[in-house]
């Protein structure tokens, strides 16, 4: 996950806004629940003022946008597309170093490309026979 | 062999990528539901309006997920399309939401 600069700034600014809205709401809740209005009758002021409500909503929306747009990587699930991206080198699978995977054409079947060749069983049998002869001669 | 199996044989999928994608989506949903809980606590929502707020917020987050990381093509990354993005880990999201909702309601208003 590589974060881009604009979304970082967005997350920072909207976090500050959200903290400010939270503090404002707290301060507002400390006011007396009934405040005398101009004509002397007590009016309920328990509901949040419009500016704090708007600030909260806007800051949360911006924060969500900033978080979601900050470079989350999803991989295509269809094998066709995924294998194509692997071969072209735009996705490097986990567990493989970026340096060793620098070359292109490292697809899903990379292990098959690097398997050892066929064993020359006749040559090995001849070697074994020679060794056996040698051991028998020395003993 | 029914139609779905045949479709899987013709268009095979990568199970590791399905798991990784759904984990990323669940992470995003739980993170954002905590933030929505903060907002609901600050706004002082109670009972049904709080859950309605969560519903709207989750839909908004799903819309953002489909828009930004998926580039508007959810079928490329999730098997069920956008419905799976919306319905990813609803119970866990609600729990995180209620946790921060009650916490911030208490912090701000008590």
Automatic annotation (TrEMBL), chain A:
<keyword id="KW-0812">Transmembrane</keyword>
<dbReference type="InterPro" id="IPR053279">
    <property type="entry name" value="EMC_subunit"/>
</dbReference>
<dbReference type="InterPro" id="IPR018937">
    <property type="entry name" value="MMgT"/>
</dbReference>
<feature type="signal peptide">
    <location>
        <begin position="1"/>
        <end position="24"/>
    </location>
</feature>
<keyword id="KW-1133">Transmembrane helix</keyword>
<dbReference type="GO" id="GO:0034975">
    <property type="term" value="P:protein folding in endoplasmic reticulum"/>
</dbReference>
<comment type="similarity">
    <text>Belongs to the membrane magnesium transporter (TC 1.A.67) family.</text>
</comment>
<protein>
    <recommendedName>
        <fullName>ER membrane protein complex subunit 5</fullName>
    </recommendedName>
</protein>
<keyword id="KW-0472">Membrane</keyword>
<keyword id="KW-0732">Signal</keyword>
<dbReference type="GO" id="GO:0072546">
    <property type="term" value="C:EMC complex"/>
</dbReference>
<dbReference type="Pfam" id="PF10270">
    <property type="entry name" value="MMgT"/>
</dbReference>
From TrEMBL, chain B:
<dbReference type="InterPro" id="IPR008504">
    <property type="entry name" value="Emc6"/>
</dbReference>
<keyword id="KW-0256">Endoplasmic reticulum</keyword>
<dbReference type="Pfam" id="PF07019">
    <property type="entry name" value="EMC6"/>
</dbReference>
<feature type="transmembrane region" description="Helical">
    <location>
        <begin position="90"/>
        <end position="108"/>
    </location>
</feature>
<keyword id="KW-0812">Transmembrane</keyword>
<dbReference type="GO" id="GO:0034975">
    <property type="term" value="P:protein folding in endoplasmic reticulum"/>
</dbReference>
<feature type="transmembrane region" description="Helical">
    <location>
        <begin position="52"/>
        <end position="70"/>
    </location>
</feature>
<keyword id="KW-1133">Transmembrane helix</keyword>
<dbReference type="GO" id="GO:0000045">
    <property type="term" value="P:autophagosome assembly"/>
</dbReference>
<keyword id="KW-0472">Membrane</keyword>
<dbReference type="GO" id="GO:0072546">
    <property type="term" value="C:EMC complex"/>
</dbReference>
<protein>
    <recommendedName>
        <fullName>ER membrane protein complex subunit 6</fullName>
    </recommendedName>
</protein>
<dbReference type="InterPro" id="IPR029008">
    <property type="entry name" value="EMC6-like"/>
</dbReference>
<comment type="similarity">
    <text>Belongs to the EMC6 family.</text>
</comment>
């Amino acid at each position: 996950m590589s974060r881009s600069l604009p979304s970082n700034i967005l997350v920072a600014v909207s976090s500050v806004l959200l903290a400010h809205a939270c503090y404002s709401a707290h301060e507002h809740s400390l006011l007396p629940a009934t405040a005398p209005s101009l004509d002397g009758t007590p009016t309920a002021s328990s509901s949040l003022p419009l500016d704090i409500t708007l600030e909260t909503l806007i800051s949360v929306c911006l924060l969500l946008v900033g978080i979601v747009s900050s470079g989350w990587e999803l991989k295509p699930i269809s094998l066709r597309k995924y294998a194509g991206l692997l071969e072209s080198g735009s996705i490097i699978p986990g567990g493989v170093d970026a340096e060793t995977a620098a070359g292109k054409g490292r697809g899903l079947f990379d292990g098959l490309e690097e398997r050892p060749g066929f064993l020359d069983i006749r040559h090995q049998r001849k070697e074994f026979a020679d060794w056996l002869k040698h051991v028998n001669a020395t003993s | 062999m029914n139609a779905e199996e045949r479709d899987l044989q013709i268009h095979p999928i990568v199970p590791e990528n399905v798991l990784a994608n759904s984990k990323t989506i669940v992470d995003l949903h739980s993170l954002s539901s905590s933030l929505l809980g903060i907002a609901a606590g600050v706004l002082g929502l109670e009972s049904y309006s709080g859950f309605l707020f969560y519903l709207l917020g989750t839909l908004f987050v799903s819309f953002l997920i489909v828009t930004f990381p998926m580039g508007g093509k959810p079928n490329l990354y999730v098997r069920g399309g956008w419905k799976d993005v919306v319905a990813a880990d609803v119970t866990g999201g609600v729990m995180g939401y209620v946790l921060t909702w009650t916490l911030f309601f208490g912090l701000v208003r008590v």
